Amino acid sequence: MKIAILNLGDINEVKYTIDFLKNIHEEIIAAKIDLFVSKNVANELGEHKLLNSIVPLDLENLNIFNFNAKQNAMEYYKRKKYNIAIDTQATLKSAYFTYLITGRTAGFKKPGLKGKIISSLYDEKYDLIHDLDKKENTKVLLSNTFGFGA
Hints:
Layout: E1 2-6, H1 11-27, E2 32-38, H2 39-45, E3 53-57, H3 67-78, E4 84-87, H4 92-101, E5 105-109, H5 112-119, E6 124-127, H6 134-146
Parallel strand pairs: 1-2, 1-4, 2-3, 4-5, 5-6
């Protein structure tokens, strides 16, 4: 199974996501996981044995003038035919680029108009539990998406 996980957060937030990848590998035999992160975080991470690859995304300074070029760059990853793309952040930018990667997506539901727009880009939507920290919410999202206990 080819899995794309997108996390454009800081290095600590990305490390939370990586911490849980062991569970995915134990539950899904031959899972190939590509982790999409910001360019700065990719430079800090180096390689990781649980990841097929770390994909640095240059989405800084995203604006109307460079949006089309950055969107076209994401089309390359669509050809990799991921089984699912998971957004661990639920921001408008991360949701949109997760949607571009593949047809089947998963992410957090958020309240409000912006939240409805973000959620509309996901096939599988899970509640963001405000009582939990980011690490635990990421664990719940990945567990629910793949159908095994957190």
